[in-house]
Amino acid sequence: MCNNNSSLVSGDQTAVNHDQKIAELVVDNSRCADGEVDGLTEAFTGLEFLSMVNVGLSSLAKLPSLPKLHKLELSDNNLCGSLGTLSEKCPNLTYLNLSGNKIKELSNVEALQNLKSLQSLDLFNCDITSLEDYRDSVFELLPQVTYLDGFDQEDNEAPDSEADDEEEDGAAPAGDYDEDEDEDGSEGGGAGPNRADQDDDDDEEEFAEEEEEEQPGVQREKRKRDVDDEGEDDGDEDD
């Protein structure tokens, strides 16, 4: 009996250790009961990215402690307050998406002042965006934020890290060419022979062949003239 209990404890500890190593977790559209989201536990202490889109959250009071979390997706929920919990549970957040929630007043986001590392905040489709001087007010309230709804204070768009990664891992840069085509000179940047030079070489070969064909006739004419000249010389001697 003791052995069985030891085995269960060992199995649970292995699962916990595995969860601690996970850096990204997506539980979008999961069920939420009393602020607890299915699939998210206290064991995920190593998370750096967490997405909880459309899970019915109305409070973050039961959010587990995630000290390594940098990016948090909370769009399309029912949040309007309790954002102060984020600075306690996720103190190192750099990106926070609250779009599609019930945030109406500046006071709702005031608690985000304690997120000192926060650089990017999204409030798309929240009622707060209809406030007069909304953008200027949020930037003033949260001076640590560089990008609000994807743009900075000068309306410069935030860089897309995913697109940058695709460019780095994508196709070869312009100017590359097919090595097979380049070897036979049909394509590429000058590795094969020049077309005009090749045509000149072909013309010279044809001209040489024609000269060879005509050469025997020329020699026969020369020999004939030589024989005729010798005959004339013999005739002069006889005279």
UniProtKB/TrEMBL annotation:
One of its GO terms (cellular component) is nucleus. Residues 149-239 are annotated as: Disordered. It comes from the Eukaryota. Pfam families: LRR_9. Residues 131-149 form the U2A'/phosphoprotein 32 family A C-terminal domain. PROSITE patterns: LRR (PS51450). Its main location: cytoplasm. Gene3D superfamilies: Ribonuclease Inhibitor. Residues 151-186, 198-215, 228-239 have a biased composition (Acidic residues). Signal peptide: none annotated. Keywords: Chaperone, Chromatin regulator, Cytoplasm, Leucine-rich repeat, Nucleus, Repeat. One of its GO terms (biological process) is chromatin organization. It is found in: Cytoplasm; Nucleus. The keyword Manganese does not apply. One of its GO terms (molecular function) is phosphatase inhibitor activity. Belongs to the ANP32 family. Histone chaperone that specifically mediates the genome-wide removal of histone H2A.Z/H2AZ1 from the nucleosome: removes H2A.Z/H2AZ1 from its normal sites of deposition, especially from enhancer and insulator regions. Not involved in deposition of H2A.Z/H2AZ1 in the nucleosome. May stabilize the evicted H2A.Z/H2AZ1-H2B dimer, thus shifting the equilibrium towards dissociation and the off-chromatin state. Inhibits activity of protein phosphatase 2A (PP2A). Does not inhibit protein phosphatase 1. May play a role in cerebellar development and synaptogenesis. This is Acidic leucine-rich nuclear phosphoprotein 32 family member. It comes from Gasterosteus aculeatus aculeatus.
